[in-house]
Design goal:
7-stranded parallel sheet, hydrolase activity, 787 residues, ATP binding, RNA binding, helicase activity, ATP-binding, binds magnesium ion, binds cytidine-5'-diphosphate
Length: 787
């Protein structure tokens, strides 16, 4: 089961003016020029402007480098008052013996890479080393980024506890919340939060050190931060305000960072932390089970459990537990905290884990690992954005990480449910995220940083040219980027020199922490009292999967009957929330609005969610995101004076129509048109829809309230490929809106000099209730007459 924790962008949004003078002064010019020199920055990294600290071997840990002006300032050592137990526990960590080496490297080099196995102490200890060495003196902050929210929160708590400091000093900031104060000296945050901060203060002046943690995960935002920080470090050195950058990775595979002259002209030093690893004997299967890998896992676990020694005896209960685990995912969640505790006397702990346990999490005392060799990942088509969950083989690196988990406390065994020949065919490493998903959100953020020629940006691993083009095309269509003249664009595409500057609308969109399509909706919805509804729809679409998954296979007749009952119940509440007539035309997005409205009206209780098939956790997230988006909208448009009204009244009929237009403008490239009966090519096109990008038929997902309605034009939130290509999150579009709202997706039988007057992407004014249309729509199948 894939556990995808979405990474995120930051919470506060401020008007563009808040980009700050630093950006204009140092950022704008320098970044643009830095990014435009194809060969990377035209200079070697500025030598560290401060002298190496004088080191006295007796003074633990490291002496502090004189960082701030005046340079003659004496080195500071900030004492930390740890409890003796804590100190004893720290001393066991492998990274403690590397403290001197790390701190010396940091003093001498602007950029340092630290590699060490999961559990060696990187995340919890390195910030403490830096703190003690005075890198947070003069009210500056040690910043640490994490790709996952949970890690940012948990690590700030852990470090505060280890250092005997309050969370006012060791704090965190994630998308929705944080506890950062004036006193904060160590700040854990998600990588998206730091990216937003760069938009406000390009030089990141409040930090003396930035640590990018878990760089091996190659999350999109961490990758971008590496590229940006490589420039920021140089700019800061020029100003004699040096910034230190530490990149921390759980694997040794850092060539994408070190052997990348576009990124770092001189490869930064790599410090390897040796960890205690006991030998792990790897057992391959003779043949590879093709189908039932989870059943195979289960049998193997039972066999190990019966045949192989545990410290304690009495094993019956746990086999039963495993059987239950196999059946029910819910139990696994509940057990999360328990895996860190020693199992009860006389039992054996069996952990069923996703790839989270590969590197992000160390569970103590694991001796046997059973590896099915599979990973379930959301897979995107780079150009069309169609996504599907696919179970694929892991990489060799991941398989080795999994095996390594067995040797943390004593020699162990790893049972691989595949043959060594199959292993030999695995990819060496998992591909970085940036090569695996659409990048329009990223490109918009980068354009907002005035990086126009995105293609020249020093990505550790660049996204493909097709996905860059697809992203720019979408942003142009949304009005977020200035559309070049046709001839100019053709030239750009031929030479891969994409360089469209951002528009005012684009800048506004970039301040909203949601995907560009949704940001467009927000930017448009300042009229007719639609804002709070648009915010709710966007929040619900961003959180996704508000409804419980009821399509799962049932383990017994009894469970099947229960599932069927729940499905019927959910279908019924969806119909109620979708309503009739005008309201039903907003389709699944009306259902989202109804679900949030009804749930909030009921006080968002877990009981309400349970009874109506809603996921409580998702509903709480929608609530937080609504709050955050409301703040963001108020920042751009203070006169809106919005507040989150939990008891939201249903929208009026005309508001629903405006909302549909707003949704159409945002999801425009996700337009689909039903194949007319006279155009039916063959049976596979029955009830099918056609979209501009895909040759294959797409269908309305059976869970949609419009499944039986089959409107002529729809926009969809996403296409997910299972047995067929299914559109999810559907809303209907009136045919006469298409040429007005989405002229770029139409073919006109006479040339369209400029967009119809009612639509102006720059100003974002689309809300004409009845557009008078004089054009014929020629898309996507044969021409229809629209009056
Ligand atoms: O970052 P890295 O994986 O190298 O290690 P870490 O997260 O700093 O963890 C170092 C040690 O602290 C591990 O052995 C964890 O078991 C322990 N730890 C803990 O006991 N409680 C936490 N909340 C976090 C870490
Ligand atoms: Mg870590």
């Amino acid at each position: 089961e894939a556990e995808e924790e979405e990474s995120e962008s930051s919470m506060e949004s401020e008007p563009e003016e808040a980009l700050g003078t630093e950006w204009v002064e140092a950022g704008a010019g320098t970044m643009a020029s830095a990014a435009s020199s194809t060969g990377g920055r035209g200079e070697s990294p500025a030598p560290s402007s401060q002298p190496s600290p004088a080191r006295t071997p007796a003074a633990p840990p490291a002496a502090a480098p004189a960082l701030a002006r005046p340079p003659s300032k004496p080195a500071v050592f900030i004492p930390v008052n740890r409890s003796p137990e804590m100190q004893a526990e720290r001393l066991k960590l492998p990274i403690l013996s590397e403290e001197q080496v790390i701190m010396e490297a940091v003093a001498e080099h602007p950029i340092v890479i630290v590699c060490g196995e999961t559990g060696s102490g990187k995340t919890t200890q390195v910030p403490q080393f830096l703190y003690e060495a005075g890198y947070s003196s003069d009210n500056s902050i040690i910043g640490v980024t994490e790709p996952r929210r949970v890690a940012a929160v948990a690590m700030s708590q852990r470090v505060a506890k280890e250092m005997n400091l309050s969370q006012r000093v060791v704090s965190y900031q994630i998308r929705y919340e944080g506890n950062v104060t004036e006193e904060t000296r160590i700040k854990f945050m998600t990588d998206g939060v730091l990216l937003k901060e760069i938009q406000k203060d390009f030089l990141l002046l409040k930090y003396k050190v930035v640590i990018l943690d878990e760089a091996h995960e190659r999350s999109v935002y961490t990758d971008i931060l590496i590229g940006l920080l490589s420039r920021i470090v140089t700019l800061r050195a020029k100003r004699h305000l040096p910034l230190k950058l530490l990149i921390m990775s759980a694997t040794l595979r850092v060539e994408d960072f070190t052997q990348n002259p576009r990124l770092f002209a001189t490869p930064p030093p790599v410090i390897k932390v040796e960890s205690r690893q006991f030998p792990v004997t790897v057992h391959f299967n003779k043949r590879t089970p093709l189908e039932d890998y989870s059943g195979e896992c289960f049998r193997k676990v039972c066999k190990i459990h019966r045949m192989l020694p545990a410290e304690k005896e009495d094993q019956k209960d746990s086999v039963e537990e495993v059987r239950k685990f196999k059946k029910s995912r819910a139990r696994v969640k509940k057990a999360q905290a328990a895996v860190f505790k020693p199992p009860p006397e006389g039992t054996r702990l069996c952990v069923v884990a996703t790839n989270v346990a590969e590197t992000s999490l160390t569970i103590p005392g694991i001796k046997y690992v059973v590896d099915c060799g599979k990973v379930k990942k959301r897979h995107y088509d780079r150009v069309t954005g169609v996504s599907s969950f696919r179970v694929t083989w892991v990489s060799q690196a991941s398989a080795d990480q999994r095996a390594g988990r067995a040797g943390r406390t004593e020699p162990g065994h790893c049972y691989r449910l595949y043959s060594s020949a199959v292993f030999g065919d695995f990819e060496q490493f998992p591909p970085p995220e940036i090569t695996r998903r659409p990048v329009e959100d990223l490109i918009l953020q980068m354009k907002a940083l005035n990086i126009e020629k995105v293609i020249n940006f020093p990505f550790p691993t660049p996204p493909s040219v097709e996905s860059l083009i697809a992203a720019e095309e979408l942003l142009i269509a949304l009005g977020a980027l200035q559309a070049p003249r046709k001839a100019e664009r053709v030239k750009q595409l031929q030479t891969s020199r994409l360089s469209c500057p951002i528009t005012e609308l684009g800048k506004t969109m970039a301040t909203f922490p949601v995907a560009p399509r949704y940001a467009k909706m927000l930017a448009l919805s300042r009229q007719h009292g639609c804002l709070s509804y648009a915010i709710t729809i966007v929040a619900a679409m961003t959180v996704r999967e508000l409804f419980e998954e009821l399509d799962r296979p049932a383990a017994s007749e009894e469970e099947l009957a229960k599932l069927k009952g729940r499905r019927a119940r959910v279908a019924q509440v969806k119909r109620i929330w979708a309503g009739q007539g005008a309201s039903l035309k907003l389709g699944d997005l009306m259902v989202l609005l109804g679900a949030v409205g009804a749930c909030e009206f009921a006080g968002c209780s877990p009981q309400f969610c349970e009874a109506n098939g809603l996921r409580y956790k998702a509903m709480m997230e929608v609530r937080r995101l609504r709050g955050q988006l409301t703040t963001a909208v108020n920042a751009v448009c203070p006169e809106a004076g919005l507040f989150v009204d939990p008891k939201m009244q249903p929208p009026s009929e005309s508001q629903v129509t405006y909302l549909r237009q707003i949704v159409t403008a945002g999801l425009g490239d996700h337009l689909a048109r039903r194949v007319q009966s006279e155009d039916l090519l063959d049976d596979k096109w029955r009830n099918a829809y056609k979209t501009p990008l895909l040759d294959d038929p797409v269908f309305i997902h059976p869970s949609s309230v419009l499944f039986r309605e089959l409107p002529e034009f729809v926009v969809y939130q996403e296409i997910v490929e299972t047995t067929k290509m299914y559109m999810k999150g559907i809303s209907t579009v009136e045919a006469q809106w298409v040429p007005v709202l989405l002229p770029s997706y139409c073919q006109f039988d006479k040339p369209l000099e400029e967009p119809p007057p009612a639509y102006c992407p720059e100003k974002g004014r689309v809300l004409c209730h009845r557009a008078s249309v004089f054009y014929r729509v020629g898309w996507p199948l044969p021409v229809v007459q629209v009056d």
